[in-house]
Amino acid sequence: MELFEAIETRRSVRKYLAEPVPPVVIEKAISAALLAPNSSNLQPWEVYHVSSPDRKAALIAAAFDQSGAATAAELFVFVARADTWRRNRALVLEELGKRGEIPKQQLDYYTKFVPLFYSHGFLNIVGILKKIAFSLVGLFRPVPRGPFSGSAVKGVLSKTVALACQNFMLAITAQGYSSLPMEGFDECRVKKILFLGGESAVVMMIAVGKEDPAGIYGPRLRLDPKLFVFEV
Amino acid sequence: MELFEAIETRRSVRKYLAEPVPPVVIEKAISAALLAPNSSNLQPWEVYHVSSPDRKAALIAAAFDQSGAATAAELFVFVARADTWRRNRALVLEELGKRGEIPKQQLDYYTKFVPLFYSHGFLNIVGILKKIAFSLVGLFRPVPRGPFSGSAVKGVLSKTVALACQNFMLAITAQGYSSLPMEGFDECRVKKILFLGGESAVVMMIAVGKEDPAGIYGPRLRLDPKLFVFEV
After folding, report:
1. With contact defined as beta carbons under 8 Å apart, do B173 and B204 qualify?
2. For A7, which of B35, B39, B159 is closest by C-beta distance?
3. How are beta strands B45-50 and A229-231 bridged, if at all?
4. What H or E segment, with its residue span, contains residue B112?
5. Domains in chain B, start-ordered, CATH in brackets?
6. Which of the four, A3, A157, B116, B123, has the lowest number of CB atoms within 10 Å?
7. Interface test with A, best of B5, B7, B190 (most A CBs within 10 A)
8. Closest alpha carbon to A205 in A177, A189, A185, A191
9. Using alpha carbons only, what angle is made at residue B24 by residues B20 and B30, rounded to the nearest 5 degrees?
10. In 3-state terms, what secondary structure has residue A204?
11. Facing A7 at nearest CB: one of B12, B32, B91
12. d(Cα B69, Cα B189) in Å, to the nearest integer?
């Protein structure tokens, strides 16, 4: 399907028919998700395809039994991880090394800047010191204004994961199925179901299935772009 | 361009040729951005197309003079707004009203749930009370675990804006141009340049232009999907 057609036909579908989604559709959508641009190419995402009946039932309950989750053939949870960067950095550097000598600037980026970005120390002490230091230097020249805490890191990584979610949903649309991104769920319960700890943020739950026409709530409603777009 | 081709060919381009981007390309990409799914359909986004030379120069400096920003023909700033929901809610309800009687569930959602989501009171007192109340009830049944502060609201809305950013970047690719999403910038300075206040979060700066082949740093590098994808 043509990109603009996918973007235009994608709707949030809140009710699905009892029709399975072929595994190849799911594989293709996940592959598309993993091609999104991402923070420092450290690929901080995880995609949980929840198909065991018990876990699925628990997930639906954690999403307040909303019909989009309850009727979907497939449920996915997109997660941001603040703790996989060391592993992924090692793997990225290994792969770059195989391709040739790593430019000094790139090596410095991964060995000096990235740890500064991700590490905040016990009780966030490093984060607080960073914030003070950057605020002072920032009086005189541009400086990064974060992330200065573990939760701020998860905020940054959640944006990366959202980019992947959009690729995923478009890829589902392009293959004739529909999706529903959900942010309304009990994150504590979702984390328990997936055995996730404090270094993870549950970014989005996404339902996938064959659209029940009753699952579309009226024609799409978008406000006047003049409210949102500014040429400055 | 076919969706999967757009997803596969999109790369982060860090250097651009001195070639303009036709306005129609930009218009189409912004329209695509505004079709992303979004939190409660309250469309909490803003897109700043920065073209005045002074402002552009200031923005490039705020992005640490990185070549992607400095050489791009066009610069965009995608912003999440935590304070446009009342206006947008009124407009959404007005439009829904024109289409027919608004179902009670939907009306309740916008008049009862949405304010609960967005309002946290002076010194975040309402947010703290909400957190305590939900934590207690959450012992017994699924409850939302946030947002319980203004900054948490901005975190949620930033995910929505990231979905729009991905549509935007794919639409740029599909029209033969390239993009670079940037998260490394001085948010305070960017906000000053755009006259944005505390209710805004700068989600992403995006450079757009015609790719200089030197702006692609080697073949795409993605780690083994087995590290990220779990069937549970």
Report:
1. no
2. B35
3. parallel
4. none
5. 1-232 (3.40.109.10)
6. B123
7. B7
8. A185
9. 105
10. strand
11. B32
12. 15
Tokens 């991964």 belong to residue: A110
**pLDDT tens, N- to C-terminus, chain A (232 residues):** 999 999 999 999 999 999 999 999 999 999 999 999 999 999 999 999 999 999 999 999 999 999 999 999 999 999 999 999 999 999 999 999 999 999 999 999 999 999 989 988 888 999 999 999 999 999 999 999 999 999 999 999 999 999 999 999 999 999 999 999 999 999 999 999 999 999 999 999 999 999 999 999 899 999 999 999 999 9
Parallel, antiparallel or unpaired: strands B178-182 and B74-81: unpaired
Cβ separation A225–B12 shorter than 8 A? no
Is residue B64 within 8 A of residue A142, CB to CB? The reply is: yes
A120-149 pLDDT tens trace = 888 899 999 999 999 999 999 999 999 999
Contacts of B128 (CB under 8 A, 6+ apart): B148
* Residue in A159, A78, A147 with CA at minimum distance from that of residue A114: A147
Distance CA A221, CA A199 (A): 36
Give the up-direction half-sphere exposure of residue B158: CA atoms within 13 A in the CB hemisphere.
25
Residues of chain B positioned with their CB less than 8 A from the CB of A170: 3, 7, 167, 170
**Residues forming a β-bridge with B48:** A230, B77
Q: Which one of A229, A230, A231 would you mutate to disrupt binding with B, by most B Cβ within 10 Å of its Cβ? A: A229
Distance in angstroms (rounded) separating the CA atoms of residues A172 and A164: 12
> Are the beta carbons of A96 and A231 closer than 8 angstroms?
no
